[in-house]
Automatic annotation (TrEMBL):
Alphabetical keyword list: Menaquinone biosynthesis, Methyltransferase, S-adenosyl-L-methionine, Transferase, Ubiquinone biosynthesis
Substrates-to-products reaction catalysed: a 2-demethylmenaquinol + S-adenosyl-L-methionine = a menaquinol + S-adenosyl-L-homocysteine + H(+); a 2-methoxy-6-(all-trans-polyprenyl)benzene-1,4-diol + S-adenosyl-L-methionine = a 5-methoxy-2-methyl-3-(all-trans-polyprenyl)benzene-1,4-diol + S-adenosyl-L-homocysteine + H(+)
Molecular function GO terms recorded: 2-methoxy-6-polyprenyl-1,4-benzoquinol methyltransferase activity; demethylmenaquinone methyltransferase activity
Keyword Methyltransferase part of the UniProt annotation: yes
Alphabetical list of PANTHER family matching this protein: 2-METHOXY-6-POLYPRENYL-1,4-BENZOQUINOL METHYLASE, MITOCHONDRIAL, METHYLTRANSFERASE
Protein name: Ubiquinone/menaquinone biosynthesis C-methyltransferase UbiE
CDD domains, per the entry: AdoMet_MTases
Family membership noted in the UniProt record: Belongs to the class I-like SAM-binding methyltransferase superfamily. MenG/UbiE family.
Gene Ontology BP term (one): methylation
Enzyme Commission number(s): 2.1.1.163, 2.1.1.201
SUPFAM superfamilies: S-adenosyl-L-methionine-dependent methyltransferases (SSF53335)
């Protein structure tokens, strides 16, 4: 099955995504380093610098599609271990790895882990100071719905930060990137996880994801204000920032 190249329903899309992350959960962190050449660490650090969580107690964040916890750990550390947060993911295998890592790092007291769908958040309105999502939104079948949920659970004055693969806006780099993502990544997937097909699907999902400006328009449509974005590494990734005011 070459499922990246035909039209699939939302339900099918979600179950393909779930398959990928169940299979890869234990090797996810290594795969990330291999496939991005370590760049994901730089982008994530830049995202946390932009969030700049306060170094005092009381700051509460929600990290959606939080997987193995990378973003949440960074936020807690950047706050001087004062912030508390919820790591939410649809995939119990990814969360399991995240929970173990949190314990090893001594951050378990600051975090809780919730298995749920970004399209349907199990939290009251105005529960969080910040909503973060890194390399997750493009996996969500109904992105508009997820953004409306983000808006709902943020308090007034709250911040949305979304890090995602985006459109490469640098000549030459786009060619190298295409070669790597269409050939290199599925082959690495095959070699490390034993199956290249799910990675072909993920690469395709990057291609289908709206470009910077169009994604900004979607965020605005969900109710957010002051929507901005910053490109990282020529637009391989972009950080979108917005406020609920
Ligand atoms: N944020 C982490 C990071 O940057 O390392 C993990 C990103 S990983 C590429 C994408 C995550 O999105 C996976 O853990 C997957 O289970 C999760 N995911 C996919 N669809 C989701 C949904 N509808 N709701 C919540 N999480 C979802």
């Amino acid at each position: 099955t070459s499922y990246g190249f035909r039209t699939v329903s939302d339900g099918e899309k979600q179950s393909m995504v779930n398959d990928v992350f169940h299979k890869v959960a234990k090797r996810y962190d290594i795969m990330n380093d291999v496939m991005s050449g370590g760049l994901h660490r730089v982008w994530k650090d830049a995202m946390i610098a932009s969030l700049n969580p306060p170094k005092r107690p009381g700051f509460r964040f929600l990290d959606v599609a939080g997987g193995t916890g990378d973003i949440a750990f960074r936020i807690v550390e950047a706050s001087g271990r004062q912030a508390t947060g919820t790591v939410l993911d649809i995939n119990g295998s990814m969360l399991g790895v995240g929970r173990e890592r949190a314990e090893k790092k001594g951050l378990a007291a600051n975090l809780d882990f919730v298995e749920a769908n970004a399209e349907d958040l199990p939290f009251a309105d105005a529960s969080f100071d910040a909503y973060t999502i890194a390399f997750g939104i493009r996996n969500v079948p109904d992105i508009d719905k997820a953004l409306r949920e983000a808006f709902r659970v943020l308090r007034r004055g709250g911040r949305l930060l979304c890090l995602e693969f985006s459109e490469v806006e640098m000549p030459l780099l786009d060619k190298v990137y295409d070669a790597w993502s269409f050939h290199g990544i599925p082959r690495m997937g095959e070699a490390i996880a034993g199956d290249g097909e799910p990675y072909r699907y993920l690469v395709e999902s990057i291609r289908k994801f709206p470009r910077q400006q169009d994604f900004a328009a979607m965020i605005t449509r969900a109710g957010f204000s002051r929507v901005r974005w910053t490109n990282y590494t020529g637009g391989i990734a972009a950080l979108h920032s917005a406020w609920k005011i």
